[in-house]
Hints:
37% of the residues lie in helices and 15% in strands. By secondary structure, the protein is α+β, with helices and mostly antiparallel strands. The chain has a domain at 17-58.
Amino acid sequence: MPKMKTRKAAAKRYSFTGTGKVRYKKQGLRHILTKKSTKRKRNLRKTGILSEAETAKAKKLMPYG
């Protein structure tokens, strides 16, 4: 049986933690930053953790992740 292919778009967006959770970079920090507060921009720098339902979808896209 051939190897399963990883969806490269998903591999570029998500990474797995040691415990199996999925990390992602939050959106909204690319442009139009002047109207966003400093606190909001600081919190957008942190990585987000996907919910359990979304984690299951991400693991299907990245079988070897």
